[in-house]
User: What shape does this take?
Amino acid sequence: MNVLLFGATGMVGLGVLRESLAAADVTRVVTIGRTATGQRHAKLSEIVHPDLLDYSGLEPELQGFDACFFCLGVSSAGMSEAGYSRLTYDVTLAAATLLARLNPQMTFVYVSGSGTDSSEQGRSMWARVKGKTENALRRLPFKGVYLFRPGVIQPLDRVQSKTGSYRIFYNIAGPLLPVLRWLLPNLVLTTRVVGQAMLNTVRRGADSAVLEARDINALARQHDLI
Assistant: This one.
């Protein structure tokens, strides 16, 4: 399996990168982003690309992939709808539209969020934009498109969030998350679970394109590495 990973410097992306590199059936992982991850592994190659809206000249390097795990995202806090749309909808579709043309047999997995508004009509700005992005992805001619809507994610393996407010949350709530995970296993996920579930969408597919926390947890459990 050849994996292309966007957002590998973020909390979810780092977790997915770790699981991808550890998977015996993954032969190559290529990350693409504005900065390098700093990780070193025999399977890993990195593409540092400052403009995630324009992939001119990169097409040869973006072919031959079985999966794309799109973990790139930003917080909507303090952002206008236009600004958030540019960094969410525009950036995602710029990559996905190109990849659908170059890799029609690819499985595309997008990290969305719990509460995403598929109607695109709700009051929550971020939920509308995520819904619009999900809907557009589902229209692209990939082999499969899976939309992950996790809620709370417990970071493991020294993985940390890049977002300051999220780091504060994890510093405060961190000791409680293992307990919540035990009490509410279908609401609180881990970075390992998310990574394993993504890999299993490529290996086996899933019953639904939209995967809530409970579905992600169940999909990960199809593999005995969580």
